[in-house]
Amino acid sequence: MDYQKFVEDQVAYIREMVGNNLAINALSGGVDSSVVTGLGHRAIGNRLKTVFIDSALMRQGEPEGVVKTFADLGIPVQIVDARTEFLNALKGLTDPEEKRNAVTKTFYATVFGKLVRETGAKTLLHGTILTDIEETVAGIKRQHNILVQLGIDPEKEYGYKVLEPLKTLRKDGVREVAKVLRLPAEVTARIPFPGPALATRIVGEVTEERLAVVRAATAIVEEELGTSGAFQYMAILLNDRATGILKGRREFGQIIVVRCINSVDARTATAVELSWEKLHRICERITSIEGVNRCLYDLTPKPPATIEYI
Ligand code: XMP
Fold first, then answer.
1. Which of 70, 84, 127, 130 could bridge to 33 as Cys pair (CB 3.0-4.6 Å)?
2. Binding site membership of 195 for ligand 1 (Cβ less than 6 Å)
3. Is the CB of 30 under 6 A from ligand 1?
C-alpha cells in the first residue's frame, strides 16, 4: 500500500466533504485520533477545531503533554474541562459495564455532543479503524455509530457528516500514515491505553481520591517499565484492603496490582518475566504512595484473564 498516496487521497476527501464549513474532532493523544488530527489539519488547517476532553481519568500530565506535542507541530488543541461531568456520572457505580457505559455516554452524549452543537461544526472527524468496525459487526463492541451516540438523528439533522478517514486501515496501517504525517515517537510509539482510561484500572468506585492513587502508581510503572519493550504495562487499584504497618502503627491500606504483558494484538497475552530487582524497585516505590501498603505482580495470561481489570 502506498501510504503517501493514502494521505493525499484522504486530504482531498476531507477538503471536499467539509467544503467551507468547520469540522471538529476529539483528540485523546492515542495513535488513531492523533493521525486523524494530523490528516484533518493538513486538509483544512484551522477550520478543524481539535479538542482534548479532560475527563479526570487521564494519566499524570496527559492533557498538557498532548497539547504540547501538537503545539510543536503547529496544531492548536483546546482542552475542555469535563472533570466534574465524568466524576458525577461515575459516582456510586461499581459494576464494570455500568462504569464503562457511564464514561461512553458522558463523552459522546453530554460533553462532545454539546461541543459539536455549540461550535456549529457541520462535520465530525472520527478515528474509527477497520478493527473497530469488525468488532462492532461481530458484536464485541456495544456501540459504534457515533451519530446515535451523540443523540443526533441523521434524518432530522440532514446534511450532518461524520468522516472516518481511517476506516479501511488496521493499527499497523495507521502507524504508517503517522510516519508519512511525521508525527513524533511520543504519538506513534505509545503503548495502548483504553478509551475509558484510568476508570478501567480501578476496581470498585471511581473517585477523585482513588484516581489520585492509581495515577501516581501508573506514573511509577510507566517510568520503570518504559524501556522494557513490553506490549503494555499498567497499575490497578483493587477494591480491597490489607493490613500493614505505617510508622509503627497498624494500617488497613490499599492494594496496587502491577501488570506487564507481552502480546501481538491484545487478543492473547502473557506476563513478562521481570527481574526481581525491577519488581522490588517497583514495589518499593508503589508502597511509598500514601495509603498503599501492598504491591502485587499479576502473572495471569490472557486467557483466562483479560488485560484490563474491568
Ligand atoms: P482486555 O482487557 O479486553 O483489553 O483484554 C484488550 C486491549 O484493549 C484495550 N482496551 C480498550 N481500548 N477502549 C479502548 O480503546 C476500551 O474500552 C478498552 N478496553 C480495553 C486494553 O488496554 C488492551 O490493550
1. 127
2. yes
3. no
Question: 157: which 3 cell numbers?
Answer: 439533522
| CB count in 10 Å sphere of residue 40 | 28
Map residue 54 onto helix, strand or coil: strand
Omega of the bond leading into 165 within 30 degrees of 0 (cis): no
Residue carrying C-alpha cell 475527563: 55
| Dist. CA 67–CA 37, nearest whole Å | 12
pTM for the full predicted model: 0.91
Q: Which three cell numbers stand for residue 130?
A: 477497520
Q: Find the 89 Cα to ligand 1 centroid distance in Å.
A: 21
Q: Which tens digit of pLDDT belongs to each residue from 111-146?
A: 988 888 889 888 899 998 888 888 777 766 665 567
CB 194 near ligand 1, within 6 Å: yes
Cα separation, 198 vs 210, whole angstroms: 10
List 292's β-bridge partners, or say none.
Answer: 254
**Among 4, 297, 17, residue whose Cα is nearest residue 161:** 17
